[in-house]
Amino acid sequence: MRKPARPFLRRVLGAAALATVVTMPALAQQPAPAAGTSPTLDAIRARGTLICGVNTGLAGFAQPDSQGVWRGFDVDYCRAVAIALFNDPERVRFVPTTAQNRFTALQSGEVDMLSRNTTWTLSRDTSLGFDFTGINFYDGQGFMVKASLGVRTARELDGATICVQPGTTTEQNLTDWARSNRINFRPVVIERLEEVVQAYLSGRCDAYTTDVSGLAATRSVQPRPADHVILPDVISKEPLGPLVRHGDQRFADLLRWIHFGLLTAEELGVTSQNVQQMLNDNRPDVQRLLGRTGGLGQMLGVDNAFMVNIVSRLGNYGQMFERNLTPIGIQRGPNALWTTPGGLQYAPPFR
Amino acid sequence: MSDITANTSVPRSAPRREAPVATTGALAWLRANLFSGWLSTAVTLALGYLIVRAVMGLVDWAFINAIWSVPIAPNGQAQTQACRELQGSGACWAVVTEKHRFMLFGTYPYEQHWRPALVCVLFVGLYVVSAMRRFWNWTLVPIWMGTLTVIGILMWGGVFGLPYVPQERWGGLPITLILATFGLAFAFPLSILVALGRRSNLPAIKVLCVLYVELIRGVPLISLLFMASVMFPLFLPEGMNIDKLLRAQIAFILFAGAYLAEVVRAGLQGLPKGQYEAADAMGLSYWQKTGLIILPQALRMVIPPLVNTFIGFFKDTSLVLIIGIFDLLTAGKTAIVEPAWQGFGVEVYVFVGLIYLVFCFAMSKYSAGLEADLNKHRRR
């Protein structure tokens, strides 16, 4: 199927009315890749490393440690792709991207994929020209209040002062929610994370709102976390996941099935500790997941044992979650497997 | 006649006495300047009290109550409870102890940190050598070329058994120094050409220079960086990428060039017309006139505004944070993203601020000396 190449690019260029001569080659239609080939995968293989766009620093998701090694949940997804392709978690280059330049970095080919807590929305999927390859973290905006306030639900925040950071959709969500629930509130808008948290702690605001994962992280480092309550109401949907350029289905398939493979591994009880023993497990599901039968890896264009390699190094989905997100106080919640009540993580059959 | 002179003693001068204690020395100075009247005494005492309180508070916070290190759990999590229990009464320097290498060198491979460290030393050495007037001749060119080549080899590696380190892993102080040094080294000659061009009689050159200066000065540096980082890659054919750092570097050079050009032009304008005419009368060509008569005098006059621009520009390099390059300040901010270290921003900013201060203060002191030295003939 032929698609116009990078519509967003045209919009930007149209608006920018800059040196049209320079832009002519970029505007030329790119031939759609023939079925079965993947320009991104070819480029990665030729280069020998995956280039992965990550956040410049978000606790638990992507963040360099004291030795400068990238760690986090999103980072582990990049490493998983590198392991699938090269059987080496080090053959990946991390490019820190900001909220502003992340999409350009992907569109221009500066990075092969983004694994950067990006919310899946219709416009990003279509007019920006991306493919989201799954939801590896269900987030949503919530509220944190001091336990001494005695507030049980967000509805009781009528008349409250609420601390919020500007710029992202957080502020917009808050206004939308307040309007549809006829709640009056006074916003205290503070740009920097550290200052907004300080304002909440010092009592300048009754409540602090941001994504639940962020609230949990802030709460977990307080001297007495029990003094703060995260209200059960979640006022927005923030499904986060990796994304690739539109039009490279094979690469998108690989990312999608790595995520499903990690979920399936957790479902079947395959962990980094027992994956070698599990090779001899004769349940057909396990045999297929670990590449003993079915040849599923080859269908994706990688080694049949790719899930063995990934799980033995990084663990399954639950282990990745426990390693990166549990220490900063994030509960599984909606990110539990579908077999748990309230869990949303569901993988199609790995066969 | 003689009887008077014979036995009357010459009046001897009185024994030397010290001036009254209250009129000389430190005591007199104190009395004249700090305690000259009741109002002055009151202000002195009040301010003295405040200063002592502030200094004691600072010493308490920075040294006496400060915590210099915290235990690290086996899983790599820092145990910062001790720091949090201080409730701000003491500094938690443990964050600097734990994270200083990340702040200084970013995500550069840990076991290779000696390379960026050596690069920083080389940069400082380069500044010191360039500051010495003994080297103000053609030898400076090979020195710069050589040092910058060595710096490039150290940072990238890939030869002489040094492992290759791609650019996106560079970070911290070397990035700040690279952006500032290359930025100024290229922008300064550019600015001289543009300043001369703006005063040229050739209309095409003049218009070009005016356009360049006004366009660049008319937009904020942030938007230039955005153009370099967000728009420029879209113009390139897919798959072709120019290094992110290089794009930012070029944006910096263009930006600094425009500002410096105006400073240099101010120096050219400030020179009396007689100097130009005298040079013409001697039959010097345009380049001889400019190189031998005009520029040496013009640049000497504008040392203070030049250094002002240099210092501002050195600090502006921290704006690369918006395009995801880990310069010194961004690395510092990233260091406190980890939940265990959240809330210790002051300590990190003090650490980073001190590094900036050292470089900017050195620049400022050196330029003050240079200015005094070069403008001796103007002193009255």
Automatic annotation (TrEMBL), chain A:
Domain of life: Bacteria
Presence of keyword Transmembrane: no
Keywords: Signal, Transport
Signal peptide (residue range): 1-28
Any one Gene Ontology BP term: amino acid transport
CDD domains: PBP2_BztA
Stretches assigned to the Solute-binding protein family 3/N-terminal domain: 49-282
Homology family: Belongs to the bacterial solute-binding protein 3 family.
The protein, known as: General L-amino acid transport system substrate-binding protein
Organism: Neoroseomonas alkaliterrae
Lineage, broadest ranks: Bacteria, Pseudomonadati, Pseudomonadota, Alphaproteobacteria, Acetobacterales
From TrEMBL, chain B:
Stretches that traverse the bilayer: 35-52, 117-136, 142-165, 177-196, 216-236, 248-266, 348-370
Family matches, as Pfam families: BPD_transp_1
InterPro entries for the chain: AA_ABC_transptr_permease_3TM (IPR010065), ArtM/GltK/GlnP/TcyL/YhdX-like (IPR043429), MetI-like (IPR000515), MetI-like_sf (IPR035906)
Membrane topology term: Multi-pass membrane protein
Swiss-Prot/TrEMBL GO biological process terms: amino acid transport
Subcellular location: Cell inner membrane; Cell membrane
Predominant subcellular localization, coarse grouping: membrane
GO cellular component, one term: ATP-binding cassette (ABC) transporter complex
Domain ABC transmembrane type-1 span(s) in chain numbering: 173-367
Keywords for the protein's UniProt record, in alphabetical order: Cell membrane, Membrane, Transmembrane, Transmembrane helix, Transport
A molecular function GO annotation: transmembrane transporter activity
Family that this chain belongs to: Belongs to the binding-protein-dependent transport system permease family. HisMQ subfamily.
Record protein name field: General L-amino acid transport system permease protein
